[in-house]
Each structure stands twice: as structure tokens, then as C-alpha cells.
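note to self — DONT lose this again. spent like an hour looking for the file last time. sequence + predicted structure for the chain T wanted, 130 res
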Amino acid sequence: MRKKSKLAVVAAGVTALAVFGLAGPAQAASDTVYTRYWDGLLEYTDSAADVDFFVVKDISADGYGVRGEIRSGGGTLLSWNYVGGNGTSKSWIYDLAKSKEYIIRVCLVSGAGDTTPINCASKVIQDTNP
């Protein structure tokens, strides 16, 4: 009976490692924010090589384009990109300062110059790679 208990504990530990992985300095951080109704998205990846990648994607044939933004923690617009057309995407690199908070924001727009975005969503991120 005791042998089965030890085996169960070991199996649970292996399962936890498989599900959650081993955290380490070489792992890339990533996050995704979707528009309110999942029409578009903005992905962020901080690679193990400490390169901050962003990809904005239009994932719905709804007549709107998608604008992805990087803002300072205080809300100041730092960088943005636009795509229009279902299935289109655009990637870019923006170097985030270590340990500072940023806001990634994604919205639907009626063209690259639209100043009245709709269905926006945002998320706070932070570059944590050493």
C-alpha cells in the first residue's frame, strides 16, 4: 500500500511538470489580447534572446481592420500597426525596457487613419527576461 502512495506522488509530480513546465531564464514570455468579440488580436513574445516581437492579426471578415498598439504604463502611445482583411497579419519589433509596465491594446478600426476605434481590449505586460 505504501509503495502505491509513493508512486502516486511521483506520478502527480511528473504530471504537474508536463502541464506547467519548468520555469527558467531561457523561456520566452508571451501574451495575447483579443478584441472584444474576437475579431482581431495582438500577440506579444519576449524571446529568450530578449527580442520583443509583436504581431497584429485580423481574424474576421467583418469589414473592419485591426490596430495593435503598444502604450506606456501611463497610456502614452509608443508604437502601433494596422492590418485590414481577414487572415492578414503584420509583425514588428519594439524594444521594451526591462521591468517597466506596458499596455498592449487591440481595436477594430475603419482604416489605418480611423480615430474612433471600437471593441478595444487591453492587457498590461512587462519585459521580464534578464
